[in-house]
TrEMBL record:
Pfam families according to UniProt: YceI
Listed Gene3D superfamilies: Lipid/polyisoprenoid-binding, YceI-like
Source domain of life: Bacteria
Boundaries of every Cyclic nucleotide-binding domain copy: 32-81
PANTHER family per record: PROTEIN YCEI
Chain segments annotated as transmembrane: none
InterPro entries the UniProt entry points to: cNMP-bd_dom (IPR000595), Lipid/polyisoprenoid-bd_YceI (IPR007372), TTHA0802/YceI-like_sf (IPR036761)
Name of the protein this chain belongs to: Polyisoprenoid-binding protein YceI
Length: 172
């Protein structure tokens, strides 16, 4: 059995996020700080990604003052508690076909996640993409959640947010 390790190239990897609310959606990016992907006989078997929560950006809010206010709110304890938890971690625990199971840790809280991934290896370069749907309330992000607050009307923020992950890694 041939084991190959690929180191994440952070400058060529990113996560696009989408958060939805009654009146629309917001989107942005967050950086993959570092990590590795492990293949055995050409098949994905493991890996770990470290996400830099302090790198979160909002792309759809163009007014600088509003964007800064929103970014500050995402950094606060209402959402990611970035000062206290500057990193989130995704660790792959098992793979079946193209379905990946893993543990996602945000704000020191770990929950299992499952998602489909597409992986391509060309010589010593690996590219991978996957889409995760995360319930933010599992990670103590309850701000304007209908599960915890009544009569929010059009200020309600949906619990699930999307992470569209795209990584490039080079053989170690």
């Amino acid at each position: 059995m041939k084991t190959q390790k690929f180191e994440i190239v952070s400058t060529q990897s990113n996560i696009d996020w989408v958060g939805k609310k009654v009146t629309g959606a917001h989107n942005g990016t967050i950086a993959v700080k570092e990590g590795e992907i492990v293949l055995n006989d050409g098949k994905l078997t493991g890996g770990k990604f470290i996400i830099d929560t302090g790198s979160i950006k909002i792309l759809d809010v163009t007014d600088p003052a509003t964007n800064a206010q929103f970014a500050g709110h995402l950094a606060s304890d209402d959402f990611f508690s970035i000062e206290k938890y500057p990193e989130a971690i995704l660790e792959i625990t098992s793979v079946s076909g193209n379905h990946v199971e893993g543990n996602l840790t945000i704000k020191g809280i770990t929950h299992p996640v499952g998602f489909d991934a597409a992986i391509n290896v060309n010589s010593d370069v690996l590219t991978a993409t996957g889409k995760l749907l995360i319930d933010r309330t599992k990670y103590e992000m309850k701000f304007r959640s209908g599960n915890f607050f009544k009569d929010l009307g059009d200020t309600l923020i949906y619990n699930d947010f999307e992470l569209n992950v795209s990584v490039t890694a080079k053989a170690a």
